[in-house]
């Protein structure tokens, strides 16, 4: 899959666009993830080759929970003028809303805040894929059909390795992130996963290396200074974590429930 040079495009032609944070005014909590997800569909081509999760558009909002999934898919079908039958069949996908629901249940709820009290944002504000299944769905299923049907080709970017991703976020998004933090003025900043952890440390010029670890330091609030203002920082795992982080995160949730 060729990495895009001008923003990229999803299957069926929707452009890859920047996703804005979920709030532009003061909020209690600022949640920082790595990058936005996307709108997925389950798609069966006219040849009956099925894909359970094909990315086709930008995620409606950061950490979308798919509460209006059918509405979003219907709007996408209208936008691309989807030709039912000629282009195949479309259904909802289990891939939609997974990270958003995890954040609701495992981050916001334990902190005692609602989405309306939080600002949700990402280190890099455009979609990147990590799952090899996404590349297979696009390269081996959609692209051949697109050539056959005269549809636009897809052009999506893979997520760089962590070090390169952190550099991309710091060099290309530092000012944006600091501005978001200054506008939201959160009581606590939450990072989700290793890359956001490293990005926040770098853009706020915290001294020392430090790593996110599944040990006693996990979920312990730390002092943080952003733009001369003191706040708190809580480093948690990425959504849908590995077993070792799932275990330590579950303990953190129990402690919050007290």
Low-confidence stretches: 1-6
Q: Could you spell the SSE succession in H and E letters? A: EEEHEHEHHEHEEH
Residue-averaged pLDDT, rounded? 93
Strand order of the largest sheet: 5-1-6-8-7
Amino-to-carboxy terminus distance:
48 Å
What's the β-strand tally? 8
Question: What is the multimeric organization of the chains shown?
Answer: single chain
Percent of residues in helices: 25-40%
Structural class: alpha/beta
Could you give a short account of the major beta sheet?
Answer: 5 strands, mixed
Report the portion of residues in β strands.
15-25%
How many DSSP helices?
6
Q: Rg, please?
A: 19 Å
Shape: elongated
Briefly say what this structure is.
The protein has helices at residues 69-80, 98-111, 132-149, 162-184, 194-203, 243-257, and strands at 29-33, 38-44, 50-58, 89-91, 118-122, 188-192, 222-226, 229-236. By secondary structure, it is an alpha/beta fold. The radius of gyration is 19 Å and the shape is elongated.
Structure description:
This protein has 258 residues and is α/β, with parallel strands linked by helices. It contains six helices and eight strands. It has helices at 69-80, 98-111, 132-149, 162-184, 194-203, 243-257; strands spanning 29-33, 38-44, 50-58, 89-91, 118-122, 188-192, 222-226, 229-236. The strands form two sheets. A five-stranded mixed β-sheet has the order 5-1-6-8-7. A three-stranded antiparallel β-sheet has the order 3-2-4. The longest helix has 23 residues, at 162-184. The chain starts with 28 loop residues before the first strand and ends with a helix.
């Amino acid at each position: 899959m060729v990495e895009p040079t001008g923003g990229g495009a999803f299957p069926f032609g929707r452009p890859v666009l920047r996703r804005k944070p979920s709030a532009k005014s003061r909020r209690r909590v600022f949640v920082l993830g790595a990058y936005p997800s996307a709108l997925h569909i389950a798609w069966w081509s006219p040849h009956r080759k099925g894909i359970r999760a094909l990315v086709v558009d930008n995620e409606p909002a950061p950490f979308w929970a798919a509460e209006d999934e059918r509405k979003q898919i219907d709007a996408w079908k209208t936008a691309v003028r989807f030709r039912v039958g000629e282009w195949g069949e479309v259904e909802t996908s289990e891939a939609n809303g997974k990270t958003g629901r995890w954040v609701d249940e495992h981050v916001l709820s334990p902190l005692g805040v609602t989405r309306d009290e939080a600002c949700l944002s990402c280190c890099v504000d455009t979609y990147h894929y990590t799952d090899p299944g996404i590349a297979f769905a696009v390269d081996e299923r959609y692209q051949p059909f697109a050539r056959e049907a005269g549809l636009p080709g897809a052009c999506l970017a893979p997520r760089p390795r962590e070090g390169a991703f952190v550099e991309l976020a710091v060099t290309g998004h530092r000012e944006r992130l600091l501005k978001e933090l200054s506008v939201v003025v959160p009581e606590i900043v939450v990072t989700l996963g290793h890359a956001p952890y490293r990005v926040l440390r770098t853009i706020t010029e915290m001294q020392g290396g430090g790593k996110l670890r599944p040990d006693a330091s996990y979920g312990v609030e730390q002092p943080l200074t952003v733009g001369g203002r003191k706040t708190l920082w809580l480093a948690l795992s990425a959504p849908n974590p590995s077993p070792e982080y799932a275990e330590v995160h579950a303990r953190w949730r129990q402690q919050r429930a007290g």
